[in-house]
Sequence to fold (353 residues):
Amino acid sequence: MTSKFWSETVRRTEPYVPGEQPDIPDLLKLNTNENPYPPSPMVRDAIQGELNRKLQLYPSPTVEGLRQQIGEYFNLQSKNVFIGNGSDEVLAFSFMAFFSQSKAIRFPAVSYSFYPVYAKLFNIPYKTVSLNRDFTIQPECFFQSEGGVIFPNPNAPTGIFLDLESVRDILESNRDNVVIVDEAYVDFARESAVSLLNDYDNLLVVQTMSKSRSLAGLRIGFALGHPDLIEALTRIKDSFNSYTIDRLAIAGGKAAITDSDYFRDTANKIIRTREWTSRELKKRGFHALPSSANFVFVSHYKHTAEQLYANLKEQHILVRHFSKPGIDNYLRITIGTDAQMQHLMEKLDELIT
Ligand code: PMP
Fold:
């Protein structure tokens, strides 16, 4: 549909469709890679404390305190840190700040489906880069890009991690363009590209508190990079909305960074449950890609992904199915608690006999 009142920009948009968020009481939600554990108790206390303070006043437009804290956590300074309303906002601002309407950017053909949405919204041409048959990324295909590169690491929805040597090669061969490494799931993987920031002023690392820090509901994402890149993001933000991070989010975000033991513990639990889940799914005839994230990407040798998705939904278990050629026979299953994954296996045993 369209309307005569729609601008050119609206006409060319193809909005991203997020995973369903139905309000069904006994639903087991394994479709949007949320953390099954609640945030640290310190986060709750901090938000409650903030409620009694100055909600009638605007929050800090620079978010300096939280930027400093995130900077310290990564051995960086606040001028290396930009904070946005979820990493989706950070990514959107990054497309505006670093990519151009005259040069094609590159991202993997199987990747986060928000990238083409931003590209269309901002009129940025793009080329998708095919993956190997096993869904691994070929780093060479990103060398000498015309207008820049973006990819998730670990990749989504495959969960496959690209080693830092290959990331370094991509950065090295794109010295005049920005390379965005979207590390939404990196805390469930081996290592972050943050360690490469000292060597590469063209690297922007984007992370989120939505997954490993259990704060999807609070909306805090951040970018780490050279101060020039951070300045560009700040200029975009300040041309758009002065206050993207509210007072409760700032208070909760600070507490989440402070209580890093809690987040490490829960991330490790999820990693252990992921390994168990992959083994159990393989026993049941699934092919599971090697995941370094808080989800697994699987297909079954006999049952189609579409059918399994529908059958699981009838059993009040929601997983993610993308009806996109190449991956339409795969399901992305978020890792929950041990008990939740046990429940999934029991239901699968009934469904795939
Ligand atoms: N990047 C990737 C690869 C993701 O899967 C997601 C979650 N949908 C995001 C970024 C955005 O997460 P958030 O906006 O909650 O930080």
About this structure: DSSP finds eleven helices and 13 strands in the chain.
